[in-house]
Amino acid sequence: MTLQLAHGLPDGHTLRIDPPIADRVCAGVLVITQVVVDDRSGPADAAATLGGVLRERWAGTQPSRIPGLAEARNLYKSFGMEPTRHRPSSEALLRRTLQGKGLYRISNLVDTCNLASLDFLLPIGMYDLAKVSGDVTLRVGREGESYAGIRKGSVNLDGRLGFFDDDGPFGSPTSDSARTCTSAATTDVLAVVLATGEYAATEMAARLDIFAGLFAAHAEGRESGRAILGGGA
Protein backbone atom coordinates (compact mmCIF):
# COMPACT_ATOMS: atom_id res chain seq x y z
CA MET A 1 0.00 0.00 0.00
CA THR A 2 1.33 3.44 -0.94
CA LEU A 3 1.21 5.94 1.90
CA GLN A 4 -0.20 9.40 1.24
CA LEU A 5 2.54 11.84 2.23
CA ALA A 6 1.17 15.27 1.26
CA HIS A 7 -2.04 17.29 1.08
CA GLY A 8 -2.68 20.58 -0.67
CA LEU A 9 -3.96 23.45 1.48
CA PRO A 10 -6.47 26.09 0.29
CA ASP A 11 -3.78 28.77 0.07
CA GLY A 12 -1.81 26.74 -2.47
CA HIS A 13 0.77 25.46 -0.02
CA THR A 14 1.25 21.85 1.07
CA LEU A 15 1.22 19.90 4.32
CA ARG A 16 3.54 16.91 4.07
CA ILE A 17 4.81 14.21 6.38
CA ASP A 18 8.55 13.52 6.30
CA PRO A 19 8.98 10.13 4.53
CA PRO A 20 11.36 8.60 7.16
CA ILE A 21 8.64 8.83 9.83
CA ALA A 22 5.58 8.15 7.67
CA ASP A 23 5.18 4.56 8.85
CA ARG A 24 5.19 5.64 12.51
CA VAL A 25 2.52 8.35 12.33
CA CYS A 26 -1.07 8.58 11.17
CA ALA A 27 -2.11 12.22 10.77
CA GLY A 28 -5.76 13.09 10.21
CA VAL A 29 -5.86 16.54 8.59
CA LEU A 30 -8.84 18.90 8.51
CA VAL A 31 -9.06 22.39 7.01
CA ILE A 32 -12.04 24.33 8.36
CA THR A 33 -13.00 27.72 6.90
CA GLN A 34 -15.39 30.55 7.76
CA VAL A 35 -15.34 29.84 11.49
CA VAL A 36 -16.98 32.25 13.90
CA VAL A 37 -15.00 32.72 17.12
CA ASP A 38 -16.93 33.79 20.21
CA ASP A 39 -17.58 32.77 23.82
CA ARG A 40 -20.59 30.48 23.32
CA SER A 41 -20.67 27.75 25.95
CA GLY A 42 -21.82 24.77 23.86
CA PRO A 43 -18.51 22.94 23.43
CA ALA A 44 -17.43 23.59 27.02
CA ASP A 45 -20.79 22.29 28.29
CA ALA A 46 -20.41 19.19 26.12
CA ALA A 47 -16.88 18.64 27.47
CA ALA A 48 -18.18 18.94 31.04
CA THR A 49 -20.86 16.33 30.33
CA LEU A 50 -18.29 14.00 28.76
CA GLY A 51 -16.00 14.63 31.72
CA GLY A 52 -18.68 13.39 34.10
CA VAL A 53 -18.98 10.16 32.12
CA LEU A 54 -15.21 9.67 32.07
CA ARG A 55 -14.89 10.31 35.82
CA GLU A 56 -17.57 7.74 36.53
CA ARG A 57 -15.80 5.23 34.28
CA TRP A 58 -12.17 5.84 35.27
CA ALA A 59 -12.19 7.40 38.76
CA GLY A 60 -9.24 6.13 40.76
CA THR A 61 -7.67 4.35 37.77
CA GLN A 62 -4.03 4.97 36.95
CA PRO A 63 -3.70 6.59 33.51
CA SER A 64 -1.41 3.76 32.39
CA ARG A 65 -4.37 1.41 32.86
CA ILE A 66 -6.85 3.44 30.80
CA PRO A 67 -6.94 1.66 27.42
CA GLY A 68 -7.74 4.75 25.34
CA LEU A 69 -4.52 6.50 26.40
CA ALA A 70 -2.26 3.78 25.02
CA GLU A 71 -2.45 5.10 21.45
CA ALA A 72 -1.02 8.55 22.25
CA ARG A 73 1.51 7.08 24.67
CA ASN A 74 2.72 4.59 22.09
CA LEU A 75 3.10 7.41 19.56
CA TYR A 76 5.40 9.22 21.98
CA LYS A 77 7.38 6.09 22.79
CA SER A 78 7.94 5.40 19.07
CA PHE A 79 9.88 8.69 18.93
CA GLY A 80 11.82 8.06 22.12
CA MET A 81 9.67 10.42 24.18
CA GLU A 82 8.66 9.36 27.68
CA PRO A 83 4.91 10.14 28.01
CA THR A 84 5.13 10.43 31.80
CA ARG A 85 7.56 13.37 31.36
CA HIS A 86 6.16 14.97 28.21
CA ARG A 87 2.46 14.24 28.29
CA PRO A 88 0.35 14.09 25.15
CA SER A 89 -2.09 16.99 25.20
CA SER A 90 -5.02 14.54 25.24
CA GLU A 91 -3.72 12.86 28.39
CA ALA A 92 -3.24 16.21 30.08
CA LEU A 93 -6.90 17.04 29.36
CA LEU A 94 -8.08 13.68 30.69
CA ARG A 95 -5.99 13.97 33.85
CA ARG A 96 -7.44 17.38 34.58
CA THR A 97 -10.94 16.04 33.96
CA LEU A 98 -10.47 13.03 36.25
CA GLN A 99 -9.25 15.37 38.98
CA GLY A 100 -12.59 17.18 38.75
CA LYS A 101 -11.00 20.46 37.71
CA GLY A 102 -12.78 20.84 34.39
CA LEU A 103 -11.18 22.28 31.27
CA TYR A 104 -10.14 25.88 30.81
CA ARG A 105 -12.63 28.00 28.88
CA ILE A 106 -10.81 29.81 26.07
CA SER A 107 -13.13 30.29 23.10
CA ASN A 108 -15.68 28.19 21.29
CA LEU A 109 -12.97 27.23 18.80
CA VAL A 110 -10.40 26.04 21.36
CA ASP A 111 -13.12 24.45 23.46
CA THR A 112 -14.26 22.47 20.40
CA CYS A 113 -10.73 21.19 19.83
CA ASN A 114 -10.41 20.21 23.50
CA LEU A 115 -13.77 18.43 23.37
CA ALA A 116 -12.61 16.37 20.38
CA SER A 117 -9.26 15.55 21.97
CA LEU A 118 -10.95 14.44 25.19
CA ASP A 119 -13.41 12.32 23.24
CA PHE A 120 -10.82 10.70 20.96
CA LEU A 121 -8.04 10.62 23.61
CA LEU A 122 -5.68 11.65 20.81
CA PRO A 123 -3.49 14.77 20.63
CA ILE A 124 -4.75 17.42 18.21
CA GLY A 125 -2.87 20.41 16.87
CA MET A 126 -5.03 23.38 15.83
CA TYR A 127 -3.59 26.42 14.07
CA ASP A 128 -4.78 29.68 12.54
CA LEU A 129 -4.10 28.99 8.88
CA ALA A 130 -3.46 32.68 8.16
CA LYS A 131 -0.53 32.59 10.60
CA VAL A 132 1.10 29.55 9.00
CA SER A 133 3.85 30.56 6.57
CA GLY A 134 4.35 28.52 3.38
CA ASP A 135 4.54 24.74 3.24
CA VAL A 136 4.14 22.65 6.40
CA THR A 137 6.15 19.54 7.30
CA LEU A 138 5.49 17.06 10.10
CA ARG A 139 8.93 15.76 11.07
CA VAL A 140 11.37 15.15 13.91
CA GLY A 141 12.99 18.30 15.26
CA ARG A 142 16.70 18.97 15.06
CA GLU A 143 19.10 20.21 17.71
CA GLY A 144 18.21 23.72 18.84
CA GLU A 145 14.72 23.76 17.31
CA SER A 146 12.03 25.03 19.68
CA TYR A 147 9.08 27.40 19.80
CA ALA A 148 7.19 29.53 22.28
CA GLY A 149 4.30 27.46 23.60
CA ILE A 150 0.96 28.70 24.85
CA ARG A 151 1.43 29.26 28.60
CA LYS A 152 4.28 26.71 28.53
CA GLY A 153 7.41 28.74 27.82
CA SER A 154 9.81 27.28 25.26
CA VAL A 155 8.89 23.87 23.81
CA ASN A 156 11.96 21.84 22.82
CA LEU A 157 11.62 19.76 19.62
CA ASP A 158 15.11 18.23 19.47
CA GLY A 159 14.43 14.59 18.51
CA ARG A 160 10.68 15.08 18.96
CA LEU A 161 7.73 15.16 16.61
CA GLY A 162 6.67 18.63 15.47
CA PHE A 163 5.18 20.84 12.78
CA PHE A 164 7.42 23.20 10.81
CA ASP A 165 6.70 25.94 8.25
CA ASP A 166 8.88 28.50 6.47
CA ASP A 167 9.30 30.44 9.72
CA GLY A 168 10.29 27.41 11.80
CA PRO A 169 8.56 25.12 14.31
CA PHE A 170 5.03 25.93 15.45
CA GLY A 171 3.42 22.91 17.08
CA SER A 172 3.66 19.38 18.48
CA PRO A 173 1.45 16.69 20.07
CA THR A 174 2.26 18.26 23.45
CA SER A 175 1.51 21.94 22.93
CA ASP A 176 0.47 24.43 20.26
CA SER A 177 2.49 27.58 19.71
CA ALA A 178 1.87 31.22 20.54
CA ARG A 179 2.78 32.20 16.98
CA THR A 180 0.02 30.26 15.23
CA CYS A 181 -2.65 30.09 17.94
CA THR A 182 -6.24 30.97 17.12
CA SER A 183 -7.81 34.26 18.20
CA ALA A 184 -11.03 36.24 17.82
CA ALA A 185 -9.84 37.20 14.33
CA THR A 186 -9.36 33.62 13.11
CA THR A 187 -11.42 32.57 10.10
CA ASP A 188 -9.60 29.49 8.75
CA VAL A 189 -8.22 26.62 10.80
CA LEU A 190 -5.76 23.79 10.19
CA ALA A 191 -6.36 20.91 12.60
CA VAL A 192 -4.36 17.65 12.75
CA VAL A 193 -5.26 14.57 14.79
CA LEU A 194 -2.20 12.42 15.56
CA ALA A 195 -1.93 8.67 16.21
CA THR A 196 0.52 5.83 15.65
CA GLY A 197 1.18 4.39 12.22
CA GLU A 198 -0.89 1.33 13.16
CA TYR A 199 -4.03 3.40 13.68
CA ALA A 200 -6.70 2.27 11.21
CA ALA A 201 -7.53 4.67 8.39
CA THR A 202 -11.22 3.87 8.78
CA GLU A 203 -11.06 4.85 12.45
CA MET A 204 -9.26 8.10 11.66
CA ALA A 205 -11.80 8.91 8.95
CA ALA A 206 -14.60 8.43 11.50
CA ARG A 207 -12.79 10.78 13.91
CA LEU A 208 -12.51 13.42 11.20
CA ASP A 209 -16.24 13.11 10.48
CA ILE A 210 -17.02 13.76 14.14
CA PHE A 211 -14.50 16.59 14.39
CA ALA A 212 -15.84 18.37 11.30
CA GLY A 213 -19.34 18.05 12.73
CA LEU A 214 -18.23 19.63 16.01
CA PHE A 215 -16.68 22.58 14.17
CA ALA A 216 -19.91 23.06 12.22
CA ALA A 217 -22.09 22.83 15.33
CA HIS A 218 -20.04 25.02 17.64
CA ALA A 219 -18.15 27.43 15.35
CA GLU A 220 -20.20 27.46 12.13
CA GLY A 221 -17.12 26.24 10.27
CA ARG A 222 -17.17 24.58 6.86
CA GLU A 223 -14.86 21.73 5.93
CA SER A 224 -12.80 22.68 2.89
CA GLY A 225 -10.28 19.84 2.89
CA ARG A 226 -9.18 16.65 4.62
CA ALA A 227 -6.56 13.96 4.30
CA ILE A 228 -5.10 11.00 6.16
CA LEU A 229 -1.34 11.07 5.89
CA GLY A 230 1.19 8.45 6.90
CA GLY A 231 0.84 4.94 8.26
CA GLY A 232 -2.92 4.92 8.65
CA ALA A 233 -3.57 5.91 5.06
Give the oligomeric state of the chains in this entry, treating copies of one chain as homo and distinct chains as hetero. single chain
Work out the helicity level.
25-40%
Strand arrangement across the biggest beta sheet: 1-2-5-8-9
Return the structural class: alpha+beta
Q: What does the overall shape look like?
A: globular
CATH class bucket = Alpha Beta
Distance between the termini: 9 Å
Number of self-contained structural domains: 1
The main β sheet shows up as: 5 strands, mixed
Number of strands: 11
Q: Please state the average pLDDT score.
A: 93
* CATH-derived architecture: 3-Layer(bba) Sandwich
Radius of gyration: 16 Å
CATH topology: Phenylalanyl-tRNA Synthetase, Chain B, domain 3
Which labels suit this protein?
single chain; 233 residues; Phenylalanyl-tRNA Synthetase, Chain B, domain 3; four-stranded antiparallel β-sheet; 29% helix
Topology, please?
Elements lengths: L5 E3 L5 E4 L7 E9 L8 H17 L11 H9 L10 H10 L9 H13 L3 E5 L7 E5 L5 E3 L5 E3 L4 E5 L2 E4 L17 E8 L4 H19 L2 E9 L3
Question: Would you mind describing this structure in some detail?
Answer:
- The protein has 233 residues and is of the alpha+beta class.
- It has a single domain (6-230), classed as Phenylalanyl-tRNA Synthetase, Chain B, domain 3 (3-Layer(bba) Sandwich), CATH 3.50.40.
- The protein is built from five helices and eleven strands, in the order βββααααβββββββαβ.
- The chain has helices spanning 42-58, 70-78, 89-98, 108-120, 201-219, and strands at residues 6-8, 14-17, 25-33, 124-128, 136-140, 146-148, 154-156, 161-165, 168-171, 189-196, 222-230.
- Strands 1-2-5-8-9 form a five-stranded mixed β-sheet, with no helix packed on it. A four-stranded antiparallel β-sheet has the order 4-10-3-11.
- Helix 1 (42-58) packs parallel to helix 4 (108-120) and helix 3 packs across helix 4 (108-120).
- It is globular and about 45 Å long.
